[in-house]
């Protein structure tokens, strides 16, 4: 069973390719080209990334300020990959190196060009980890995060034992690190679907090219996605039906049904008792050319336990990922692709137990939202129609994202159609591509469609890649070597060209919100100053909650002073509740809200306005610039606020204590 | 040492690295790096060889997810039992790692 990634077993057509070796000259080009292109690509990127003027971005995002040299670097990298990839005997390590470099060069641009982690959520996650390790308390009433705190606990421990004061130190490069972590299980998962090495590596590259959904930062969903990939890899590699194994032990294990299927020997009696109650499921077919590596006995039991371990960690950390795993495993079992029929049952029990006994704080407080927030109509409104808003440039980005996702799915459909027509038996890949669809019915708000896209992506990339790896006798013969060489060049250009176009489209989609996601040093400095000025217990109001805050003093309680870090408020949120209110009304509301806080025995409140908040409102079509300017002018003239800090990108106003009458 | 294999060796080195790094002052980048390496390698590397997969690549690939899962689950168990402290979590994880390595020495792997 010992295998290595570097010497994959090729499919039939590739075996034929190997029969006649390509000319030595072509081999030399394929070997030498990466030696030249990779360093050029890296040098171009390194020499340009520091010169990106992030402050000059418009609502198209990062593409509006990206130097041409970065485009050239990325395209050269893809071209180099395409040349190496087309060689059937090319080294897996070389292709992996290309993908590693692609991950660094594609996902690392904001980290290399910016000064701090992007987007406000990373700061919030750092605040939750900080709260947990500072207090040792899991207060499920703080917010939804505390009902699934496993990731934050693990992160907090790593930061604490590492001697750091905040998890933010890991935030800046987390996206690159997370994507690098995905690569090994992704390749192993693809390897369980096919042994065509060209297909594996093409699909792996397409996965990272098409991953535009920004779910891969310092966040629970990014780590639980790693668990998702690993669980599916283990299920498809080791927990398939044992039927294909020839040994007598394997046959006994198969006949043992549900209970004995993973631990074959000695369990027939137990399985015999239960198996008559279970429907007879025919073992699903293995993909073409993939050997059955299923393990039985104690190894099978241990692999199943590892699956449960990974699933357990996912359940404690994230609301949605366990449902994606459960859906996938259930479908694999029902279709005979996974023989451990008890696995989905056990997973469901763990999931329900956690939801009822641990996440009950969230369930109790959001019962109405949970019961009415799901369904096709609600999810469509939240995920599609509700998102079609914002500035003109942002609308272009939204439509581009829709078209890119639709293109990826269409390519996958075409690939799947081709593969089933050519009898490749990719049932497992097709099942797993469809498995996340039921998540659309869950009450998860406006991001569920993007999550579904992400859960589907390994299999969408797999089927899309099959379009570039057709079954044909493409081996050169003495008569056809010239034509074969032409085909080879055409294939390289086709794959490299389409991959480059998809990369460019994905770049636009991924970094389309960068103007608001990017925080300038002035903004992080202003928030730092806010925490210095504001004593614990004070209320902090922002124009919109889109700024690098909440990384400390996360907790809030009206009644328990030990739990009073800060209360965080958003003007845009309050204004949304009644959009008919004028800037003057909101200025009055601000003065009253922060004053009421002061009279309740807490320090006066603070208002922070910053560039990223304005960008957020302009891009997504919230408060207008005029309304915000009017609001600020009225506030300043009211004599109830004092400007206590100002820089080019941010202002902090302190509420002045009312004089006693 | 041969029975532990190089994955077992990686577990020992990452554990020893963190224990040594704890002597460094808070804020040291080396200490953070040692903590991240420990959390990514040690628990998984000490337990994964016990699965008996006989596939070195798969074992290496499994190390990181299993390590993260154990760090998360141990933290969760300690938090919910109101016993959490960073030192206690480290002790539990080191005990798990030592147990895994000891089991490997006593009984090389499930598949052997």
What's this model, at a glance?
Chain A is mainly α and 661 residues long.
Task: Give structural notes.
The complex is a heterodimer of chains A (661) and B (112). By secondary structure, chain A is mainly α. Chain A has helices spanning 12-19, 24-49, 68-86, 92-107, 109-113, 120-135, 150-161, 174-191, 197-210, 220-238, 248-255, 257-260, 268-275, 297-317, 321-334, 342-357, 360-365, 367-372, 376-383, 392-421, 427-434, 448-466, 481-510, 514-517, 521-533, 571-577, 583-599, 611-620, 625-637, and strands at 539-542, 567-570, 606-610, 641-647, 650-655. Chain A is built from 29 helices and 5 strands. In chain A, strands 2-1-3-5-4 form a 5-stranded mixed sheet, with helices on both faces. The N and C termini of chain A lie far apart (85 Å). Chain B is mainly α. Chain B has one domain (5-106). Chain B has helices at 5-21, 29-47, 56-80, 86-106. In chain B, helix 1 (5-21) packs antiparallel against helix 2 (29-47) and helix 2 crosses helix 3 (56-80). The model of chain B has no long low-confidence stretch (mean pLDDT 92). At the A-B interface, helix 7, helix 8, helix 10 and helix 14 of A face helix 2, helix 3 and helix 4 of B.
């Amino acid at each position: 069973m010992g295998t290595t990634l570097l010497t994959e077993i090729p499919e039939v057509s590739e075996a034929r390719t190997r029969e006649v070796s390509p000319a030595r000259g072509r081999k030399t080009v394929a070997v030498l080209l990466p030696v030249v292109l990779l360093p050029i690509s890296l040098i171009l990127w390194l020499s340009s990334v520091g010169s990106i003027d992030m402050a000059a971005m418009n609502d198209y995002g990062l593409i509006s300020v990206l130097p041409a040299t970065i485009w050239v670097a990325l395209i050269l990298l893809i071209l180099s990959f395409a040349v190496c990839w087309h060689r059937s005997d090319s080294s897996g390590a070389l292709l992996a190196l290309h993908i590693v470099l692609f991950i660094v060069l594609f996902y690392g641009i904001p980290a290399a060009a910016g000064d701090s982690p992007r987007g406000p959520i990373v700061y919030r996650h750092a605040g939750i980890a900080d709260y947990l390790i500072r207090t040792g308390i899991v207060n499920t009433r703080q917010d939804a995060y505390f009902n699934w705190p496993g990731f934050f606990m693990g992160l907090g421990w790593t930061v604490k034992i590492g001697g750091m004061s905040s998890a933010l130190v890991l935030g800046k490069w987390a996206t690159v690190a997370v994507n690098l972590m995905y690569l090994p299980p992704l390749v192993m998962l693809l390897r369980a679907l096919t042994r065509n090495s060209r297909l594996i590596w093409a699909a792996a590259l397409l996965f990272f090219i098409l991953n535009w959904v920004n779910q891969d930062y310092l966040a629970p969903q990014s780590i639980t996605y790693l668990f998702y990939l690993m669980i599916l890899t283990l299920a498809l590699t080791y927990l398939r039906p044992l039927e294909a194994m020839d040994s007598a032990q394997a046959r006994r294990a198969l006949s043992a049904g549900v209970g004995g299927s993973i631990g074959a020997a000695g369990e027939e009696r137990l399985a015999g008792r239960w198996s008559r109650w279970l429907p007879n499921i025919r073992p699903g077919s293995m993909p073409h050319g993939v050997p059955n590596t299923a393990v039985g006995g104690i190894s099978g039991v241990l692999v199943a336990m590892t699956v449960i371990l990974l699933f357990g960690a996912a359940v404690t950390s994230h609301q949605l990922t366990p449902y994606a795993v459960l859906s996938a495993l259930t479908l694999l079992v029902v279709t005979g692709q996974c023989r451990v029929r008890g696995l989905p049952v056990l997973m469901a029990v763990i999931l329900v137990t956690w939801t009822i006994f641990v996440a009950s704080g969230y369930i109790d407080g959001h019962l109405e939202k949970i019961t009415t927030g799901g369904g096709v109509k609600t999810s469509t409104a939240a995920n599609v129609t509700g998102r079609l808003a914002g500035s003109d440039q942002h609308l272009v980005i939204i439509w581009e994202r829709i078209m890119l996702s639709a293109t990826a799915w269409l390519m996958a459909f075409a690939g799947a159609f081709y593969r089933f027509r050519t009898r490749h038996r990719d049932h497992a890949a097709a099942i797993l591509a469809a498995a996340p669809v039921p998540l659309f019915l869950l009450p998860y708000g406006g991001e569920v469609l993007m999550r579904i896209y992400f859960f589907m992506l390994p299999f969408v990339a797999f089927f899309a890649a099959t379009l570039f790896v057709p079954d044909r006798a493409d081996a050169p013969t003495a008569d056809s070597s010239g034509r074969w060489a032409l085909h080879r060049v055409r294939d390289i250009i086709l794959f490299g060209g389409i991959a480059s176009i998809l990369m460019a489209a994905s770049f636009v989609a991924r970094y389309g919100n960068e103007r608001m996601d990017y925080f300038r040093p002035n903004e992080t400095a202003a928030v730092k100053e806010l925490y210095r000025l504001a004593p614990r217990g004070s209320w902090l109001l922002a124009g919109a909650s889109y700024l690098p805050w909440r990384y400390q003093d996360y907790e809030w309680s009206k009644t328990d002073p030990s739990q009073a870090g800060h209360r965080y408020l958003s003007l845009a949120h309050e204004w949304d509740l009644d959009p008919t209110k004028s800037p003057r009304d909101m200025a009055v509301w601000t003065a009253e809200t922060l004053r009421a806080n002061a009279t309740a025995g807490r320090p006066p409140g603070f208002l922070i306005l910053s560039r990223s908040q304005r960008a957020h409102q302009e891009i997504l079509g919230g408060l207008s610039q005029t309304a915000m300017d009017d609001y600020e002018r009225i506030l300043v003239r009211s004599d109830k606020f004092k400007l206590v800090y100002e820089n080019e990108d941010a202002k902090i106003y302190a509420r002045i204590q009312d004089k006693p009458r | 040492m041969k029975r532990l294999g190089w994955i077992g060796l990686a577990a020992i080195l990452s554990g020893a690295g963190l224990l040594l790094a704890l002597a460094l002052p808070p804020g040291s980048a080396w200490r953070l790096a040692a903590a991240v390496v420990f959390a990514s390698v040690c628990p998984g590397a000490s337990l994964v060889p016990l699965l008996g997969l006989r596939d070195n690549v798969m074992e290496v690939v499994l190390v990181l997810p299993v390590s993260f899962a154990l760090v998360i689950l141990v933290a969760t168990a300690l938090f919910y039992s109101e016993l959490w402290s960073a030192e206690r979590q480290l002790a539990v994880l080191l005990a798990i790692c030592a147990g895994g390595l000891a089991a490997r020495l006593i009984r090389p792997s499930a598949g052997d």
